Fold these 3 entries.
Entry 1:
Amino acid sequence: MNSFWSILSLSIYTAIFSTLLILPFSIAAAWLLARKKFVGKSFLEATIQLPLILPPVVTGYFLLFVLGPKGTIGQYFNAIHIQIAFTWFATVLASAVVSLPLVVRTIRVAISSVDPRLEETARTLGASEWHIFRSITLPLAYQGVIAGSILAFARSLGEFGATIVFAGNIPNQSQTIPLAIFQYINQPGGIEKAQPLVIAAILFSYLSMFISEWALRKVDHVEH
């Protein structure tokens, strides 16, 4: 049972931190894609959405290629004795990358539902873009931010492929619920040990989807 609670708490902490890690960038990217026209917009959108269609194992390999001990960037961290791959932070980072497309897409829909005439009126009154975003756009799109955050949390809880490649399956460090289940079912008598984690994963998924759908219905209500 102690193992169950340690795995569950590690999974929850990882999901929370990965969601917080990508939320500021997701909001900024969603606003840019929803409200601005610029060169490279299609490329930015495609890049953000790429983890949604790539196999998670490929995403994990890319992270390892870039941030691993001998990676293009990771080698410089390794030179000053900072390791990213195969740590708890690698688990957070892997979950964040695979969750990013869901968050950006959800928040973008919410921002697009905000009447642009409200923002234009504020501009004519001399309000800055930051003030408009902070006082008009974001408050009216907050349900989308909530929905996107919940989706990121749920996706992080279920992340397997990118995590096992980039962070490994290390107990008390990177062994989240899916990785622990995978390990248990490959051990004699492990099916019974995996059952509480399976039930917890299902319950968290149902709860996350319920809250997310509630928030999205609020967005649809505002839009119509």
Note: The mean pLDDT is 91.
Entry 2:
Amino acid sequence: MDTAWLGVFQRSALTEIGGYDERFVRNQDAELNLRLRRAGYEVWLDRRLIVDYQPRSTLQALGRQYWKYGWWRMQTGRKHRKLALRQLAVPLAVLVLASSVAASFWMPWLLVLPLGYVAALVAQTFVSKRDLDHRERAMMVGALVTMHFSWAVGFLTSASISVLRRNRRDG
């Protein structure tokens, strides 16, 4: 396992790797767990743990949350020069979806990509939660789209600004 939300740590392990990097506003857990794994420690999740979580109350708040997650995931990748392919999948998919919508004005058949994406999300609502009504399914699809696109835009914005800063510095 790469990372786990929250955690209990051996004090000596945290001391050895320098503790949390307080510059990270989000993604502190993943950044810390990356350094722990590199130092030879194991990260594991006990599925018996019960954690209380209060979800965001609006799609706008959810979007802000996930934009920040995407931004800081890119910062973690930049700091450690390491990104997993799965972390690039969502930004790449969002770029493909947005490009296909834009290009569909000239090639309407490209709408099959965003329609397929939405169909896959709707199918997922049936797989993960069978007892949802139509309104709840629509809300779940809206939340998933918001999470994917917000995370990707935060990630891509962070990457773009990093490149611009580097070019200005090297410039």
Note: DSSP finds six helices and no strands in the chain.
Entry 3:
Amino acid sequence: MGLPWQLLLLIISCLGYEAGVLKGAVGFACNWGTRSSHPLPPDIVVKLMKDNGFNKVKLFEADPGALQALGNSGLQVMLGVPNEFLAPLATSVRVAENWVSKNVSYFVSNFGTDIRYVAVGNEPFLNAYNGSFLQTTFPALQNIQAALIKAGLARQVKVTIPLNADVYETENGLPSGGNFRPDIRDLMVNIIKANCLPWEWDHLAPRALDFDS
């Protein structure tokens, strides 16, 4: 009776953590939280996800057992950085390099874990945090990016910041009246400017963009 109960718990957890289908893609994506009083063995979790059509998963933190079990599984991984790690990562590139070496490079090279993204923070600009992470999130992202470049993983592993819907507001209820919250507007603009996609588009298809128009 234990396994069916655990299977039900996993399914409920996946649904509760915004499991969904990416439009135009085949498969499902789910969040995998590892802080539990009765966790399933990581290899069983990976098997259940594969058996039920999941091909992408987000970890909220770098759990070694989960990362090892995901090795050569065919599952693409988004690896989260908890908010409490933002301050040390923001203060030193060396700290970020150690984090990337221990949690990204090690599992990519030794276990074939397909890490595609590092999610810096968990909705760090949420109003409920009262600005606790406003000064550390962007520097942490920059240092993680620098560490990935040094490790030779920047093309494979992209860096992002998960955001809550409350980073956005509108004066008239219409999209045309929307903007970022005043307290984070400049910060959000700086984060968006760090996006390297325009360079990639120009590099991969130089004739596709006309910068003079």
Note: Residues 93-111 form the longest helix (19 residues).
